[in-house]
Amino acid sequence: MWDNEKNKELVKILKAGGVVVMPTDTIYGIVASALDVSATNRVYEIRKRDSNKPCIILIGGLEDVQKFGIFLTEEQKNEIGKFQGPVSFVVDIEGERFAYLHRSTKTLAFRLPAREDLRNLLKETGPLIAPSANIEGQPPAKNIIEAKKYFGDQVNLYVDGGEIRGQASKVVRLHTDGSMEIFR
């Protein structure tokens, strides 16, 4: 799906604080660097997202959660390894440094995509927030034409992955003792 020229442009835009609509491992997402406050806030504005609702963060490897001051327990890692299909795991976060991400929930949700090409891209870009590509309350875009109707020229790049009719990921709350709750 990703070619070198597309990757170079995509990585450059995201590292510069840009916003991109692209296929994820589930559906089209409107993505930006999770480590860039202004880029994250721009996604909320463009998408008209509820400001109290945190976004799922795509990561290239489990070690990426450490960039947010989170250290997974062995029990949590074991649980993550048991899931089949797209699963986002929610864990506790301390402090206010990432309040722009946790939105007063004191938790962050991460997803490690199964697709190796996407994980490799994430290793280049760093963690990305990735809410679905739609205006809050509307159905997710199934293709770039629908995404452009939602966002027009408000995003820096559209990456066409054809028609995608996936579903949002399962969301699971992981506690430090390895116990869990399924949210979605």
TrEMBL record:
GO cellular component, one term: cytoplasm
Pfam family of the protein (one): Sua5_yciO_yrdC
Domain of life: Bacteria
Catalysed conversion reaction: L-threonine + hydrogencarbonate + ATP = L-threonylcarbamoyladenylate + diphosphate + H2O
Known EC number: 2.7.7.87
The keyword Cell inner membrane is assigned to this record: no
Predominant subcellular localization, coarse grouping: cytoplasm
Classification via InterPro entries: DHBP_synth_RibB-like_a/b_dom, Sua5-like_dom, TC-AMP_synthase_SUA5
Keywords: ATP-binding, Cytoplasm, Nucleotide-binding, Nucleotidyltransferase, Transferase, tRNA processing
PANTHER family named among the record's database cross-references: SUA5, THREONYLCARBAMOYL-AMP SYNTHASE
Protein name: L-threonylcarbamoyladenylate synthase
Provenance organism: Candidatus Nomurabacteria bacterium RIFCSPLOWO2_01_FULL_42_17
